[in-house]
């Protein structure tokens, strides 16, 4: 799948509560797997085992480096209460130089530290 | 326009009411043109026929396969009450394998069924 | 950084108040640096000078042409109250032809006018 020669990206995941969202966000920030994470409430409609469902969820918008995605997936899956959490990465193709430098300097990989 | 060799994507559209948003979402899910659709309120500022407008809208975040985009556009346009609805696709460049497999298995094209 | 051979895109920035968000949005629309801007509240968690912060912010989703990004960055930075505002561009890889034509005809560059 990786179609990914982009340095930075926005990773989306949804959670079932604000508390879990903030717990995941703080853990990712503490481990420098993301530099900034936004969170807001929404409703999700989806098909699960053939049934349509409608749940209140919280969306996380995780701004990070895409070379950290593998560690980020592992960390989210370890903290998430869903069996198959949404974890999808959208590419940042351009942006303010100072912001992207800040994003880069506030993220690091355990593998490289 | 299609710049699109990405398998999965996030399609954005806005609607004027929560009811219409949910009606479009349920129709797309029933026809397996999307696997998960999130919806939340926002305000939109835009220029229409030279005038600036500010409306309360609802944003749909449609998670799907980008080879379904043509059918998805037709379905949204048939249900939408705007003359020119926003329908834009952002590429998913990477993500959790299990989630993307679930996304793929919960979407299908009428053309292929 | 520019990884950007995409014509259209969604530019994200966050601001500290709804008023500032709308002021920036109206300025971008007046100068035809964007055709439509959505705004909604969220919470952001981030690291700044080694400290974790949690603020209420407003997210702007700016729909525009990516060849305007340099002017757009300059305009946002001139109006923004942050030292290093988030300004990141996600690519639109496909969409409704009529909407993208509307997007194109409602945006222009000072450099080309």
TrEMBL record, chains A, B, C:
<comment type="similarity">
    <text>Belongs to the CutA family.</text>
</comment>
<dbReference type="GO" id="GO:0005507">
    <property type="term" value="F:copper ion binding"/>
</dbReference>
<dbReference type="GO" id="GO:0010038">
    <property type="term" value="P:response to metal ion"/>
</dbReference>
<dbReference type="Pfam" id="PF03091">
    <property type="entry name" value="CutA1"/>
</dbReference>
<protein>
    <submittedName>
        <fullName>Divalent-cation tolerance protein CutA</fullName>
    </submittedName>
</protein>
<dbReference type="InterPro" id="IPR011322">
    <property type="entry name" value="N-reg_PII-like_a/b"/>
</dbReference>
<dbReference type="InterPro" id="IPR015867">
    <property type="entry name" value="N-reg_PII/ATP_PRibTrfase_C"/>
</dbReference>
<dbReference type="InterPro" id="IPR004323">
    <property type="entry name" value="Ion_tolerance_CutA"/>
</dbReference>
């Amino acid at each position: 799948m990786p179609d990914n020669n982009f340095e930075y990206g926005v990773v989306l995941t949804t959670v079932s509560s604000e508390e879990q969202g903030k717990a995941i966000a703080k853990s990712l920030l503490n481990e420098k797997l993301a530099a900034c994470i936004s969170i807001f409430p929404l409703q999700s409609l989806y098909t699960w085992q053939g049934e349509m469902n409608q749940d209140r969820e919280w969306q996380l918008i995780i701004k990070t480096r895409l070379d950290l995605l593998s560690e980020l997936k592992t960390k989210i899956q370890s903290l998430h209460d869903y069996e198959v959490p949404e974890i999808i990465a959208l590419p940042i193709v351009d942006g303010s130089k100072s912001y992207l430098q800040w994003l880069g300097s506030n993220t690091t990989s355990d593998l490289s530290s």
